[in-house]
């Protein structure tokens, strides 16, 4: 791959799967840091940015906190900048990260939905629905269809629940994480690079690959995480497919 | 309204709201029974047909069990006729009605979703999602957006959750209740009447009004139940709007 100056990495499913780093991933990131501009961009909304950063450091990934872009952080920023509060459907930990911006008042101007796991229950979804019927704006931290769960099977991600609220309340969500072009542009701006000089490395054919390509980047699909062979039979064509992130240096070889 | 020989009545929101009959509704049904062919068609899937029939009788409605068409009954019939079993998202009571047709095996050939209330939780939704990813067929007893809840507010109905599963698993549901044309046709066949001679009376602008009109019936909207003035500002135009079912005889006056 030619003319690459910056790399965006998805985190879960690319750098680690569950609690284990992908073999060779730590060494790969260490080898590329300094040679490329790098950002770590995640739709993972179960945990606040600081926890994700801590997990990466604990596993030995030499990343800097300023290199981290999370969908949850982007959602929080929207509510904060509007001076509003939000009814949220999030994990307890992510809800705490919203602090006083979170409330249960159905007259709130925002509803924020992330991957909430067991917190996707009728009480919370119906409260969000009623808030939307009162005119709130629906912010989807992400709208991924599914993720690879701890038991090795695919599990429902936030996307379905965002779609449920859209359908029931007759509204359209603003998606702040991948594949939102604005999310990719924010990461590009922070690197000072044009999209043609940046690649995205991810395991999600839609959010990572189609999303990055729509924003003008090239995209590399890894066969780890939620990857399934059927991903390659659809209408999205990655610019490259590698077994894991550990094969990235070889793909970049000849480029500098 | 001219040339009416048969009437389809929606039940919840039209004949009763919560636990109370709509004022004048019992007398209206009594007055029309015998003069018109009548069927009672409901997407209410929280309770099995026998329970809905019992509730109507207890309130004094002179209906016959054979006049009742329920979406839950239609869904059960599909699974039974296919000789399969289904992972279901239903209330406990509706699940019992499925009896041995219900199971939690994610290799099942069917997923059946009705209005499940508190049973819309992550465990059940994710089990349904995994069953669909294994190739099961998604049967939506109904896909209503919302209903008028016991507290007087609108609450999320099954539609959102059906849409969530469609989005997450990349499948398309078969809807067996209203507004499915097949559901209306079944009721018409049982009366031996063509659609031009039958009217539908309902409170749901989409399932009842748009659904019946698409099947060739005329449709009368009542201002009870889930009715909201905004329903009349959309793209669906009822053939008539009345304050409640008690005004139906007057609407039919001059017709016999």
Keywords:
homodimer, 256 residues, alpha/beta, Rossmann fold, five-stranded parallel sheet, 15 strands
Short synopsis of the structure:
With 256 residues, chain A is of the alpha/beta class. The first copy, chain A, has helices at 25-32, 49-58, 71-81, 92-98, 122-133, 158-169, 181-191, 205-214, 248-252, and strands at 6-9, 16-17, 20-21, 37-42, 68-70, 86-89, 102-103, 110-113, 137-140, 146-148, 154-156, 174-175, 198-202, 218-222, 240-242. Chain A has a six-stranded parallel beta sheet with strand order 5-4-1-13-14-15. Chain A has a five-stranded parallel beta sheet with strand order 7-6-8-9-12, sandwiched between helices.
- End-to-end Cα distance of chain A, whole Å, is 10 Å
Mean pLDDT score of chain A: 95
Query: Which CATH architecture of the largest domain in chain A is right?
Result: 3-Layer(aba) Sandwich
Number of strands of chain A: 15
**What is the SS-derived class of chain A?**
alpha/beta
In total, the number of domains of chain A comes to 2
Residue runs with pLDDT of under 50 for 5 or more positions of chain A = none
What is the CATH superfamily of the largest domain in chain A? HAD superfamily/HAD-like
H/E element order of chain A: EEEHEHEHEHEEHEEEHEHEHEEH
Characterize the quaternary organization of these chains: homodimer
Estimated helix fraction of chain A: 25-40%
Q: Roughly what fraction of the amino acids of chain A lie in strands?
A: 15-25%
* CATH fold group of the largest domain in chain A: Rossmann fold
């Amino acid at each position: 791959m030619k003319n690459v100056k910056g790399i965006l990495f998805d985190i879960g499913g690319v750098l680690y799967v569950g609690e284990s780093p992908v073999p060779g991933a730590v060494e790969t990131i260490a080898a590329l840091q300094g040679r490329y501009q790098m950002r770590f961009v995640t739709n993972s909304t179960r945990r606040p940015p600081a926890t994700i950063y801590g997990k990466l450091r604990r596993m030995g990934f030499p990343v800097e906190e300023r290199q981290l872009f999370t969908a949850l952080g982007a959602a929080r920023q929207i509510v904060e900048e509007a001076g509003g509060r939000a009814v949220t459907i999030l994990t307890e930990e992510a809800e705490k990260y919203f602090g006083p911006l979170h409330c249960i008042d159905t007259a709130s101007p925002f509803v924020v939905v992330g991957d909430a796991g067991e917190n996707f229950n009728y009480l919370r979804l119906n409260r969000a629905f009623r808030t939307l019927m009162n005119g709130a704006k629906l912010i989807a931290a992400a709208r991924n269809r599914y993720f690879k769960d701890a038991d090795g099977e695919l599990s429902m991600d936030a996307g379905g629940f965002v779609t449920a609220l859209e359908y029931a309340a007759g509204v359209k969500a603003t998606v702040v994480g991948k594949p939102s072009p604005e999310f990719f542009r924010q990461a590009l701006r922070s690197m000072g690079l044009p999209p043609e000089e940046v690649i995205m490395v991810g395991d999600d054919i839609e959010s990572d690959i189609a999303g990055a390509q729509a924003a003008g980047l090239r995209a590399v699909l890894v066969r780890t995480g939620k990857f399934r062979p059927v991903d390659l039979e659809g209408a999205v064509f990655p610019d490259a497919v590698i077994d894991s992130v550990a094969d990235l240096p070889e793909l970049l070889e000849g480029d500098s």
